Amino acid sequence: MKQKGIRLAFWFCAGLSAAAFLSVLALELPQILRLMAAVLLGGVLLLSFKRRALRIISLLLLGAALGFGLSYARLSVTLLPSEALSGEEREVECRVVELPELYDSSESVVVRLIGDNTPSVRCLVSIYDRISLRPGDELRCTLRFRSARVRYGEESDSLTAKGIFLRGTLKGEAEITGRWKYARLYAPLYWKEKLLELCAALFPTDTAAFQQALLTGDKSELYENYELHTALTRAGLMHVVAVSGMHVSFLVGFLSLLVGNKRLLALLATPFLLLFAALTGFSPSVCRAVFMQFVLLTAPLVKREADSPTSLSLALALLLCVNPCSAGSVSLQLSFASTAGILLCGNALLERMNAALPTRGIVGRILRPGLSAVATSFAAMVFTLPLMALHFGSVSVVAPLTNALCLWLISFLFVGGFLTIGLGALFPALGTLLGAVLSWGDRFVFFVAQGLSALPFAAVYTVNPVYRRWLLLSYGLFAFFLLKGRLEKKEAPLLRPLALSLLCLCLALGSVRFRRNGGGMTVSAIDVGQGACTLIEQGNTAVMIDCGGTNTLANAGDTAAAYTLSRGRSELSALVLTHLHRDHANGVEKLMSLVKVQKLYLPRNQEAEAEAAILAAAGRHGTEVVYVERELKLCAEELTLRLSPPPEYQQDEPSLFVLASCGDFDALITGDGDAFQERRYAQLTLCEDVELLLVGHHGSSGSTSELLLDTIKPAAAIISVGYNTYGHPTDTILERLSSRGITVYRTDRDGTVRLTGETDGSINKESPR
User: Fold this and answer.
1) CA-closest candidate to residue 297, choices 331, 274, 319, 320
2) pTM across the whole model
3) How many Cβ atoms from other residues are within 10 Å of residue 429's Cβ?
4) Residue 729: is the preceding peptide bond cis (ω within 30°)?
5) Is 628 left (phi over 0), alpha (psi -120 to 50) or beta?
6) Per-residue pLDDT tens digits for 350-386
7) Residue 344 is inside which H or E element, if any?
8) Phi, psi (degrees; rounded to nearest 5) at 209
9) Which of 34, 296, 492, 703 could be joined to 485 by an S-S link, Cβ 3.0–4.6 Å?
10) DSSP code of 567?
11) DSSP three-state, residue 171
């Protein structure tokens, strides 16, 4: 009876969670109320029936009714009043609730509004002159408010999922009026700050960022190491630095080794788990894991059975009751999806592997940890793969192998990291010694990740529809064999669908490589936000012109590399930078960490800081650097590139001009070149009848002059543009293009634009997705 009661609670919590997800991700507030009334009525009517199936449906509906009601109430007191403030400038009182993020001369900090004239919600404030704020400080200041739901002109739930409903910009000076009387509650934030400092001091520079991320989930320093971050991502190991249930289980496992008594373990583990959750900022994944571990530890003490599915659904329901908008949190979705996969499939997979492979004797002791890691990895991927493809556009193929090789070691690195910090705080010399020893384990993880991520098939990128179809087909194969086994009352085979899935992947990889070898030239203007990035392909040759973008949540290098790799290309013959402004070059370092670049072409006399960073990245990756100081002609297969440098006396927006040709098809890229540079280019070159123009300066009225258009007479034009406050593309340029009958494509409306120019000069538009 207890088990039945527990499972009934599972259905109630599942209904509540489903309603919260629907409320946030799919419904408007009036629709939530109507649905709540409908499901409540249905749940009450079905409650009178005694059949178990109808009772379960009734609990689902009643849970959903409660979920809709709670979501409506929470959104009404947080989201609605916050949206009403958007666009206003108001003097407010607020309290700092998180450590500020520091930049060169500015900072951003999360505050809670506490005045009578504002809703009590959290707001992310941008401050352009640092004022060294600390959690617990109370301020009086003037803020210009914007909605947290809109980022760069598009709806986004990245902030609301964290409970932040407003963004604000500080206007004028901020007055610190005092400290909150309960400021001691923010002590874990200061402990985390100290822990990060000790980590940086005790571990060598090449491993400190990884240890910081592993122990606390703070990945800010790790993101700065493009090469390591890329390797961990492609190898499927980034989850080890996203603190979650795995880290909580490591912590409890270590405590269980020290304490044998279950009651004492429960009493000791609870404060440790709460402290760890506080150090990590009470992230959804850690809160879920702490709750489930608490239930697992305390259930036997009160003579109750710990039912993992019910604990999982109850944890999710509680988190969504606190903040329904956390349904949009990627970490929450991945955490619960991976745990559900492990609960549903983990033990079954491990049993099948143990039955198929020798697990006794010396061989068994060697294989057992690896088999457990592989089984857990595969089980976690059951529900997370579609989410990874949806949110990140990639799937790591080698993840099970890297997890088998590294997960056993991660537990030692995690526990050893905290021991090193604890000892190092008391005895710095001993802590430094332990950090140096432990770092060899970190380096082994790096070695495995970098080695396997370098394989051309380490990850596939679902921007290419071929790989999306492969993923759907793989799930279909497993579902077919599972259903077949159920109907025949046999154990469903695992190796057959796995082998067929791998075979289909090989065919998909082959088809992508085969389809790229057409005779014409393909020009892809990749959607990188307000920026420029153009991939030119012809046969086995691939060249990229510029790689930068602003006003977007994604790094331009990530976006460009994902698109290039999805086309079956892991190497660029050349990367040409027309100039080094951020919107044309801020993705270069990330791109080089993902795609091999043979040669880098760029003009001289550019921004010194940007140039130094790019040259350093080129040096690390063995890329040859060529400065374009006179006109260059590059030839590869049937593709010809002509690079024309800006005049030495050009001060305003000096850019390389690039003319790409294949047969009778020509494409001209002018970077941010202005009308003066266009006129000089038209006079000095015999450039006529260009079929495709990449419009200069994102459609600014200072470029794409009438003289240039009348000289080259393009049939089509692409404007690479994103959300901006400059008015790009201007009406003047749009009118100038349309009056000449030029077909116009825009990346802000059309996404990535891919055009294929045949050798006879004709243009065909392809769908990039």
Assistant:
1) 274
2) 0.87
3) 10
4) yes
5) beta
6) 777 777 665 566 655 656 666 777 778 788 888 888 9
7) none
8) -65, -40
9) 492
10) T
11) strand
